[in-house]
Amino acid sequence: EICDASEREAxxxxxxxxxxxxxxxxxxxGPSLAADWHARQTNYGLLRAAGRRVAxxxxxxxxxxxxxxGALNGLDPSAAAVREAWxxxxxxGTPDGGGWDTALSVCGMGLSDVLGxxxxxxxxxxxxxxxxxxxxxxxxPGQIKSVIFGSVGALDAPHNRWLYxxxxxxRERLLASDYNRARRGQGILHGIAAxxxxxxxxxxxxxxxxxxxxxxxxxxxxxxxxxxxxxxQLLDPAGRNxxxxxxxxxxxxxxxxxxxxxxxxFRPDLNRLLADWIMAELPRxxxxxxPDRADWWSTQMLDLSRAPKxxxxxxxxxxxxxxxxxxIGALQYHLETAGRVLTEWQEDVVRIVESQGQxxxxxxxxxxxxxxxxxxxxxxxxxxQMAALTQGWSRWLASATARNQ
Length: 405
Fold this sequence. Notes:
Elements: H1 5-15, H2 19-29, H3 37-49, E1 53-56, E2 84-88, H4 99-113, H5 132-137, E3 144-151, H6 158-165, H7 168-175, H8 177-182, E4 186-190, E5 206-209, H9 224-235, E6 240-246, H10 258-263, H11 270-281, H12 290-305, H13 309-337, H14 343-361, H15 375-404
Parallel strand pairs: 3-6
Antiparallel strand pairs: 1-5, 2-4, 4-6
Helix pairs in contact: 1-2, 2-15, 3-4, 3-15, 9-11, 12-15, 13-14, 13-15
């Protein structure tokens, strides 16, 4: 924990304007031992860092070599430079325990504590010896607006297509459970100029301006990186998001089997629905400031949450069916245009298409992942909660900024 539970409770309470407000804020960033702990940790870190230029780092600086002219610290956040690059979170300097969970925790704590005396040291030669004041004064271009932790396991995702392209021997070594135990903490960083494996390199940190346009991790469903990326883009269309994703192993007993999970029938969850909805509605938002844009989006969610049950179910059914059909179409397109492909990749894609087709033709009411009984009523409640959290987020960030000055 960044601080003990009582200190965190008191600090969050100081941001709230009412008892109800405090309840929503506690849901978003309060102490928890539940599965959403990392989301709350990150949200709390954002609030504690609000109004500051934060040096974002894992224990080895989350940096990349300068491979693109004009890129800052090796990072090119332009939309035209969407690539993948592996980085290793298990190098010298990792706190005891290691692993991806530790790395997430360190990053979350770093958002709030890196300007102070944290438990780990800046290892880059470029920043060794710099004072907290100097770090705070380092220029931030404001391009990177939020840091998004998530997990991407679908076999049609770009980084997984890359995994298939590197050759069977390398791929099997990379996905094997013993390799993941030996090299725990491998991840994928989206938005990088060129894909490459990084080992033992030292870089300057990326600077992130934590302001009212930073999105929060959604506490109500999985795939929070989708929702948060879309929300951040809504609040600041010119901003860029830094995505951190897991490397899900093939056969790690303690983790998700990436291939089996990928072959299973896909059902979108709430965060995916909200992310797709935001991106579709984005051109309609005419509000200029981040708080006004958040209020506009909250109103859209509240309006739908108050719709008749039949309309809610209709929206759910249409979204789920469309998402499943789009996945089938995309995978079939990949098969038809791939030319000579690895047998393993072709077999996996065919299996996904088959299972997805069966799900699409199944009887019953289509529902989001985790929605089993009365999906329309659950959808309405979740929309109301997400509307309240979205509406309050900019206000809480502003209050936190004032307290952090």
